[in-house]
Amino acid sequence: MQKKTQKLTVYVIVGLLIISLVGTSFMFLGDMRPTVGKNYQDQINSLKQALEANPQDTQTRLALADTYYDWGMQTLSQDMAEENLATTTSILQQAVTEYQEVLKTEKNVNILVDMATAAFYTSQNELADQTFQEALQEDPNFYNGLYNYGVFLYSQGDYGKAIEQWEKALALENISTDDKERLERNIKLAQDGIVQQFQQPENGDSSDANAEAK
């Protein structure tokens, strides 16, 4: 039970921090979720049929991966109840699988960051970490990569490195006022996390209790 609680806590933390990549219109769908889910499934079925006819069509496979990703991110942003995490994880795992196939023939920073983010949400932390780093080697100034890698590091309790990523993003030219304010809030959260780490009791039992209460 504790493991499930900790996993849910990570989803909640990241839900507060993660940059929205699927569009703010989804915030207002409310009871339309089942219909939207069916629309995603219909689109996926259509893309799968196209791939059956032409398995080497990288752009169609990328569209399939993006559809899984958008569906999973939308579902996660709307309903983080623990009983629904398995469904969301399954959807995002499909995104990871399809992105991996695409990356065999086409590599760019957008695909790498989306795959890393999906891997993170499916608890594939080593894959997520490696892929975020690969993406930032491709483009060290890619905002979404810096932002989401910071979120990943924050969720792992590596607040110092999270701050490093967000400060790099904050130094980029032409970021919006909203992005700047979001980054500054996140940096403050990470700084608070560092303070809390130093304030935790050395007693192991007390530390576990504090972690579970968060």
UniProtKB/TrEMBL annotation:
UniProt keyword annotations, A-Z: Membrane, TPR repeat, Transmembrane, Transmembrane helix
* Region: Disordered, residue numbers: 194-214
Record SUPFAM superfamilies:
TPR-like
- TM segments? 9-29
- One family from Pfam that matches here is TPR_16
InterPro entries attached to this UniProt entry: TPR-like_helical_dom_sf (IPR011990), TPR_rpt (IPR019734)
Q: Does the keyword Plastid apply?
A: no
Quote the protein name from its UniProt record: Tetratricopeptide repeat protein
Q: Which organism is it from?
A: Desulfitobacterium hafniense
Phylogenetic lineage: Bacteria, Bacillati, Bacillota, Clostridia, Eubacteriales
